[in-house]
Amino acid sequence: MWLLDNGRIVIGELDGRAKYANPDMLGEGDAVDAVLEEKERESNIQLLRRGIVFVRWSFRQLIEQPDVVRRKLDAAGVPRTSQGLGQDALRWL
């Protein structure tokens, strides 16, 4: 998560297949439930504060195509010299 100088918040998320396929991660639901829960969570976060942008990348992109991840973060306005907010991120919402 990054708090940009213009006040916008960028949330980066590594998307993996496990949350849609691993029964331990799915709990009582299925892959469709996981997608719907993810959309609901993202919507709720965006309602907390205007100017929140989500950027997603896959593990494969991170390992095999890091330029794709860099381009996504660049497009979102994340400066390459910035530090993520880490665990303190929620205080900005």
Short note summarizing the structure:
This is CTP synthase. It comes from Bifidobacterium moraviense. It contains 5 helices and 3 strands, in the order ββαααβαα.
User: What's the mean pLDDT score?
Assistant: 84
- Which runs of at least 5 residues are low in confidence (pLDDT < 50)? none
Strand order of the largest sheet: 1-2-3
Number of strands: 3
Overall spatial form = flat
N-end to C-end Cα span: 11 Å
Biggest sheet descriptor: 3 strands, mixed
Q: What pattern of helices and strands is seen along the backbone? A: EEHHHEHH
Topology (elements, then pairings):
Elements: E1 2-3, E2 9-15, H1 18-21, H2 23-26, H3 31-48, E3 52-58, H4 59-64, H5 66-75
Parallel strand pairs: 2-3
Antiparallel strand pairs: 1-2
Describe the 3D structure.
A three-stranded mixed beta sheet has the order 1-2-3, sandwiched between helices. The mean pLDDT is 84. With 93 residues, it is of the alpha+beta class. It has helices spanning 18-21, 23-26, 31-48, 59-64, 66-75, and strands spanning 2-3, 9-15, 52-58. The N and C termini lie close together (11 Å). It is built from five helices and three strands, in the order E-E-H-H-H-E-H-H. The radius of gyration is 15 Å and the shape is flat. 4% of the residues are buried. 45% of the residues lie in helices and 17% in strands. The protein has one domain (2-86).
